[in-house]
Design a protein that fits this description.
The chain has five helices and seven strands; from the N terminus they run ααββββαββααβ. It has 169 residues and is an alpha+beta fold.
Length: 169
């Protein structure tokens, strides 16, 4: 990773872990992300300017309705993607993680392109290696886990063959 990008990501990572950002981010970031996505027809995400980002389409665990969530991700070999349920270091898991547990077939929209995926919850046997991989991409990210006081859910999104799904446009 180029050193300038790593330096910028490190600075952004530090800021994103501050109490100020954790208090303001949940209110400010989603509308900004939706606005940028609307203007660019889903091809650009504000967070994607610094880190790889996607829009995750899931089926609601309770409602059964389609849900969309903008997330950062860490790319893995084989076009797989790691997503972490940090929820701005809040003490509750984000709803999208429960959606994936209930309905692991989802769609990751990357740069406007829908990719059918199957979510796999990372188990205890793999957690430390996955955290090391994530923190190589996004320094200090595990600070969210310490600040939240809970074990964050991490999912590997594995591309699947396209199937008829209401989540794929």
């Amino acid at each position: 990773m180029p050193s300038l990008l790593r330096t910028v990501r490190g600075s952004v990572a530090w800021f994103s872990r501050t109490k100020f950002f954790r208090a303001v981010g949940p209110t400010v970031m989603p509308p900004l992300e939706r606005g940028i996505a609307f203007v660019t027809r889903g091809r650009v995400q504000m967070s994607g300017l610094l880190v790889p980002s996607l829009v995750l389409r899931t089926i609601g665990a309770k409602s059964g309705l389609e849900r969309e969530t903008a997330l950062m991700y860490c790319p893995e070999p084989g076009k797989r993607m790691l997503v972490t349920g940090s929820n701005f270091a809040r003490d509750a898991h984000p709803a999208w993680t429960s959606n994936l547990i209930a309905h692991p077939d989802a769609v990751a929209v990357v740069r406007g392109k829908p990719i059918p995926v199957r979510a796999q919850l990372i188990g205890d046997d793999e957690r430390e290696a996955v955290w090391a991989y994530i923190e190589h991409q996004w320094p200090g990210y595990r600070g969210y886990e310490r600040a939240s006081g809970r074990v964050l859910r991490i999912f590997r999104l594995v591309p699947t063959p396209a199937v008829a799904s209401p989540l794929v446009e």
